[in-house]
Design a protein that fits this description.
By secondary structure, this protein is mainly α. The chain contains twelve helices and no strands.
Length: 268
Amino acid sequence: MWNTATCLPEGFHYPEKLPSDRLEEMDNMNIRKLTHLFNSTKSSADNGNVGNQTNCFGIEYPLHCTKYYGPHPLDCLITIWDSARCLIEGHKHPNKISDEELDRHNNMNLRELADEFNATKSNADNSDIPSQFLCFGLEYPSGCNLYYGPYSVSCLETIWISVKCLPEGSEFPTKLTVQKIDSFNGMGLRFVTSFLLSLIFQMFGNFFIVILHLMTYFKALLSVSSRCTASGFLQTNTIFLKFITTRLRVYDLIYTIQYFCCILSVFI
């Protein structure tokens, strides 16, 4: 009767798991009453009763999942996909699959779906390139065995070179401490790549900031050159160096240059 209600042996109220007093109570029920009890347990599970989900199937349904045997809303499939730690970039993300594939998923139960998605991620981490595309939307770089790490130095070197950084760089993986390398673990290969790319953007950003500072510096010199003495010019250079090291605001630089140059012009 338990099986007829389509509850599972994994359910917490599977008859063989019940205490003796509960079994004795059931022995005193007629078949109709027992059948109703088991069917209502399953029906209640599919109507959001978390207690009966565990009683009947041994699991709490994932978020947005309303029936153990389906059909499953798209949001339910996405929840299970996310729990397998696959990404939206994956080629088999539920938003990207065909109607035929959605129908196939709707005919699977929640455990089967979780097993399939987890297997896709596991296969990806076991060097199966098609599964890497299915789960994460990319092929792992050479030397990288696990999407979320831990990452070997050779894996990080491959990513470093792929973003056009050089071995001479101070953050080249062989120059990093063990603690720094371990800090990448769990980020995911996409995030690690983005992080190393950010070093390039930071470098170019600092370059343009220096150019801006130089332009502002020479503009300030021109604006006060008619009033500044040679001593004032030297003082201005000192202020500029301070500006570069302390990153004063541009307007602070201009006004400070003008102030010192003009004060020096009065006394020299």
